[in-house]
Amino acid sequence: MVEAHTVDPALSELLLSEVPHRADGTIEFSIRFQEAFRAAITPHTKRFGRNIDLDTRAFVMTNMVEALGHAVVLRQPRGLSLAKAEAESCKAILAYLAS
Hints:
Number of domains: 1
Helix content: 55-70%
Structural class: mainly alpha
Shape: flat
Strand content: under 5%
Mean pLDDT: 78
């Protein structure tokens, strides 16, 4: 997501401002996005060491990836490199998965 948005941050900002943000406006995309994450983490559930709710994990992860991915490109503070911002975002997502 970061790579896609760094190509043209101004276009990404415009698209982000124009996409409907109401609950029913992007539901089909959200469901497909969550299903992809659910499918990706399903084979690794034994690593979590306990039963987890995959639907909840997929929901939270997709929102973390979306929010952090946009923030890295569009709201990155001065003095924080793109690589460092991306690495910190990945650490946050991995910490959630490990919790």
